[in-house]
Amino acid sequence: MSFDGIERRKHPRRAYCEKIQFCQISRFPNKLFPGASVDISDSGMRIYTLDKLVVGDSLEIKTALPVPFLKATVKWVEDCAGVYYKAGIMFH
What we know:
Elements: E1 2-3, E2 6-7, E3 14-24, E4 28-40, E5 44-49, E6 58-61, E7 71-80, E8 84-91
């Protein structure tokens, strides 16, 4: 996270553009949703999806990732003209 040009993230993000699948375990635990990752760090990932996510949703990533975490919480969501959603997720 940048503020006044100073990087404040604890873990630096790196490009990671891959197709992913995830479950919204807090609302739809048995349904797979498609998405795409854009970047990743040791603590989280930014994803794009056609399915609406809600801040606080618990997700389980079903695709192998280059980090040891597969469960995450949605921290922020941006509605992109009602066409797709951009979200930041934090691993746990």
